[in-house]
User: Fold these one by one.
Assistant:
Number 1:
Amino acid sequence: MIFKLNIWRQESPETEGYFEKHEVDASEDSSFLEMLDALNESLILKGAKPVAFDFDCREGICGSCNLVINGTPHGKQRATTSCQQYMRDYKNESELWIEPWRATAFPVIKDLMVDRTAFDRIIQAGGYIPIRTGSACEANTLPIEKHIADAAFDAATCIGCGACVAICPNASASLFVAAKVAHLSTLPQGDMDKKRPAKMLKAMEDEGFGSCSNYRECESVCPKEINVSAITTMNRLLYRSR
């Protein structure tokens, strides 16, 4: 299959970016990143600079493959990261526009790579649960209602990819923060630190992310399908702490 690619190129955070046109012949069984690998091999053979893009596991786990494909973070398939999108998914779209995440808090490093360390600083602001646990106890001695345990586990699946920020008109990180809050603060162990939501939301604001306006675009592109109900949980915990 022949694809016309319009790829964002930007040498550094200080330089102006632009779209560069390429044409590739890709197998329908190739993943999106394998297609970019093949493109880079051809560019290197021609003596041109390869396209910089981020990746790690290529198994839909790490969330580092932060691409916006034809206007949608990660691509057209829901609950799927960029590395797990396949070229057969785009057989009816001969022209593809590939961009990095667009958010002030995610500055472009080069081409399709962005700096997402703002997420790390938000997590650090939340701190750790300040309680001495001692030796491990029998799990059944700490009763947790199943719906609470399930909700905490669902929130814990967040891989911090930033797709929620990339799709949000406000570039809000509320879904990410809510997932990290709901993941621990709804469990008995997290009940000891009631200021965690406030600390993490303050860090989110300081990093330059916007606030939530309930567009709910975030949950539609989340590769782990985290529900916006996590934001409701975060807000409830925030107000209870005041």
Number 2:
Amino acid sequence: MERNYYSTTSTFVHPNELDWRTAFHEAGHAAAIHLGNRQKQLPPVFFEIHVQRPTNGYEDFFAKVIDGNLIQNLPIAVVESFNDLSDSPQHACQRAYEADVVNLLVGPLAEAKYVSIRDDEVFNINLINFNALHNYGGYSDLEKALSYLDHFIASKAQREEKMQELLFQAFRFIDNRRHWKCILNLAHYILDSQQEVISCDEAIGIFDRCLLANTPFRSAHYPYLFG
């Protein structure tokens, strides 16, 4: 899961701003993988965040969530025979791929919410659609989400209906104040730490401490970001 850094649009994003957008994008993925899957009572899945930090004026900041997909942990035979499965295994497989799609969508949605708060704009589901997420580094995430639905749902109309349903689920995850607080904390950690790899345990520790804290997190850089 990674932010797409190339766009067909001519919109320029300052490198420092792109760093922030990237951090929120990847923090959104990580939060959804851990907190979202746990909320749905799905099994935990390994992930880690790889970070490339510039060492000179010619390099760019880059971050990417590695692994974190439930569907990859299912036996290949189960995935390939999805339509022939009995109700119980099919339901388990469906829950897995739907969670993976939501976790893919949360990345660009987190970036979109960061931008809307920064610009003091309204962030609601009526202003967000699938195609709009391309503007928030979501191209590769959306392509992967579509490939999931193409594999599991034959009807185009049903795929579009399911995508809208999962987009709404992803938005509800982002719109949860506790989840957003976790994303905000991890985004700062991604930017401020000097590590090239942020382990799954480190990210989960940040989430757990954030959820246990009684006081809201405030950004020294952007105090309005708590949203």
